[in-house]
Amino acid sequence: DDDIFSSAFCENSEKLINVHLFALAAKYYSLSNLGVCTPLEDVLEALKGDSEGATGIKPDEFMNNKKSHEVQVMSELVDSIANYCGIKQVVDVGSGKGYLSSFLSMQYNLKVYGIDSSSSNTNGAHERNRKLKKHWRAYQSRGKENLKSQSLEMANDRPVEHELNCKTINEELLNNASSLQNQGQVIIQDLVPSCGFTEMATLETNTADLGTGTQSHETKLSEEVLAVLNVLPVDAVEDFSSSHFNCGELCEEEKVQRKMTSLKTKARKSSESNLYLPLTSCITAETELSDIITDLEDCMMVGLHTCGDLAANTLRIFTAKPEIKAVCSVGCCYHLLSEQFENQEECHDQVWGFPMCQYLKDECWCCGRNARMSACLALERVAVGQMLPTESLFYRAVLQVIIEEIYGVTKSDRHVGKTFSKSSSFTDYVRRSLKKLELDDSKLPDSCIMDYYEKYKHRMNELEAFNMLKVVLAPCIEVLILLDRLCYLKEQKNIAWSGLVKLFDPVKSPRCYAVIALKNQPC
């Protein structure tokens, strides 16, 4: 196959001479064709336990379509891994504004720490928490209504017992109180929807208060037992309403209802206090999570579109720390990866983003920035008609010629960024860009700028064709980076399983592959 595909290039000039063969070779070496990915359905099936999963919350109600798709799919997988490993704590690195973190906490009751290096992102996450409280109330109300509806359906399917009365209700409460008395101190955990933080509530029963059968003692018992409800979710408590019980008089039942309503309101306010905890810190390969998270316990690390070296460092921390039992990382921004063999200078102390595995290190493999930039392109989007921004790419290419020929600059630490969308013309684009690059634009008249534009505009079709070839090649370069990370995990001795899983629809979310690994569990 290699011999066949090599004929796409001229043997002497090494120029591309067969575009069709080039495209076939790129497809052949793409991740979808190599057969190294594990289907998401197979992973979920293997992790499946007794739980049926959470339902009811739709992230598209407070996220855009792309983010909603990503969060919903990834959170289900993370919850399955957490259940399989028997852990409740999740560390979300590069958490940004906390979309994934808050959903994991709110939907799956996981204890989530979101870590991001940007304080503005962390502040944004706090602000989103405030707004999510409003949604949280709506979800709770919806869950309560669903529970009532289900209860009514169940009641219609079975004979109605007409002789239930207020005495029966109080007897049930007394029986519950007696069972609590036998335990002495009851710890209620797991049932609490702590929105990211496991809370514990204790109920101490006093045997002196449980000895009589008088009305006052019964009322006090009811109050003590109902105090338990203060830590329960709103929809975990079923109303004692007239639709369920055929009581001639309201008597104590009405009081019980009112107390339950009040306690559920308190429970709602308590559960809304924190959805998850956003933290500001820069994560490197040497980061000690215990210095950032004081109550770090057995946990898993996740990352949704972690930029550049952060994806590689996430895997390194995972393999080095025994308390981290699993990892699920979706990387992005390959152009920001640091490469060990990209420059000639030796720097033995630095930890590089690429390569990670020993095989590519031994080969001194290097991609280069241009290749890594190409790996960020979205072939699937182009294939469905979402064409490349040819004009903005043309502007940037001509700008590069200007700064090299006029200013003698071939490399800069500064970036032009998203200047095209803010520019009214090519001249405006050039002047805005020069200011960003801290270059004096006063010595460059408008006529000179337009001369460059006119000189190269007839080559715009060439540029478009060249970028289309880069798009075709993009999956092959991404394969190299992802397989490097997977091979690094395969080299570790404490890993029980590792794999690449396609999580997302690549049209909605081009960086759609997750690197997943689980550590060996102690016997």
UniProtKB/TrEMBL annotation:
InterPro entries on file: Methyltranfer_dom (IPR025714), METTL25 (IPR052220), SAM-dependent_MTases_sf (IPR029063)
Lineage, uppermost ranks: Eukaryota, Metazoa, Chordata, Craniata, Vertebrata
Protein name per UniProt: MET25 protein
Domain of life: Eukaryota
Gene giving rise to this polypeptide: Mettl25
Domain Methyltransferase: 66-340
Pfam families, A to Z: Methyltransf_32 (PF13679)
